[in-house]
Design brief:
The chain is an alpha/beta fold. It is built from 17 helices and nine strands.
Length: 353
């Protein structure tokens, strides 16, 4: 499944109070931990993230404390295990933990208790791990433990990364580059410690915004291609002029990579209602329908993140050029729910890519 599919599945488990244990499989850097964190944040529940590979058996089971009167030992559980409320107990890197730690985790997964500790009723138990084919340093996963879980496997997916990037404000140059070179979203390199993945592209975004070389994040090969792409990006029509309705004399590029770049650039920088109207009008006059559809998809996703999708749909229908385009080509995912589109001066700074 895609990362977006995984997030939807996990969100449903929480909203429907399904407390079956879940095991998430996927390559390193694909976003497993981030998705779990997002679900906890969206559902407004707690999350305890345990890296089992870093725990000793006593860290999870607790320490035996002798009772002099009964001449027995009482196990004192660790303070990081939840005692109340509701949330997600996330056992990350579970198959990087040695078998003895996995054995203790098995009791927590199966019985929701370990030693003298019992997990509160409202807590989900989810785990994640890498696969052997990912060249991760993993131990064999106990069949007894594996049989306790629902197993979900995710693969890299550009649309999911783009949606996340829109929400998190990833630089539009990275998003447009990966739209053109999808294979570089996740490409493991056994000969290099740094290689492109959703995680490292997020790190590259931080470096790019600081005017630093991104090769320490994504590796030399991907960084070289990205630098070549930036040279193309620098030759784009003036995006600011288009956003402000002054792009009549500017032509839509003929080269595919430049087309992706200018469309993503407009979608990323459209921070006012007027920006959207001017950009769409320019694209309708200058480009083919597929580029208009891509632009609409980008701004619709931003509107959905901001809770303004309903008024976005109204704006599209009320504008003559947009309405004609929608009637002719009927792009998918047009939002129809209610909501107020923010005014120009309120839009600035909210939901920006």
């Amino acid at each position: 499944m895609t990362p977006s599919d995984l997030e939807t599945f996990l969100q449903t488990l929480v909203t429907k109070d399904v407390f079956e244990p879940v095991m998430i499989w996927g390559a390193p850097g694909i976003g497993k931990s981030t998705i779990v964190a997002t679900v906890a944040e969206d559902q407004k529940i707690d999350r305890v993230d345990l890296r089992l590979s870093q725990l000793a058996p006593s860290d999870l089971r607790g320490l035996p404390v002798p009772e002099k009167e009964t001449r027995t030992a009482n196990w004192y559980p660790p303070d990081f295990l939840p005692r109340e409320g509701s949330g997600i107990l996330f056992l990350d890197e579970i198959n990087m933990a040695p078998p003895v730690v996995q054995g203790i985790a098995q009791q927590l997964v199966l019985d929701r208790k370990v030693g003298n500790y019992e997990l509160p009723t409202g807590w989900h138990v989810w785990a994640a791990g890498n696969r052997k084919e990912d060249r991760a340093a993993v131990f064999d996963f106990s069949s007894a433990l594996a049989n306790r879980f629902l197993h979900l496997e995710i693969d890299p997916d550009f649309d999911s990364f783009r949606d996340w990037g829109i929400h998190e404000g990833v630089d539009d140059r990275i998003l447009s580059f990966l739209a053109l070179r999808v294979a570089l979203l996740h490409k493991m390199d056994s000969n290099s410690p740094n290689w492109p993945s959703p995680r490292t592209w997020a790190k590259a975004d931080v470096l790019l915004k600081a005017d630093l070389d991104i090769s320490p994040a994504v590796g030399n090969a991907a960084a070289s291609e990205f630098r070549a792409y930036l040279e193309i990006f620098d030759q784009l029509p003036n995006i600011d002029l288009i956003l402000n309705g002054q792009g009549e004399a500017l032509d839509f590029p003929s080269e595919p990579s430049r087309r992706y770049a200018v469309t993503y650039g407009l979608g990323a920088r459209a921070k006012k209602k007027a920006h959207i109207l001017h950009s769409f009008s320019w694209l309708v006059d200058q480009s083919a329908p597929e580029w208009c559809q891509l632009f609409l998809q980008l701004v619709m996703e931003k509107a959905e993140e901001m809770g303004t999708a309903g008024s976005m749909a109204v704006m599209l229908e009320e504008n003559p050029k947009m309405s004609e385009f929608l009637n002719r080509f009927n792009p998918q995912n047009l939002p129809t729910d209610d909501g107020d589109f923010v005014e120009d001066d309120e839009y600035e700074g909210r939901g920006a890519f």
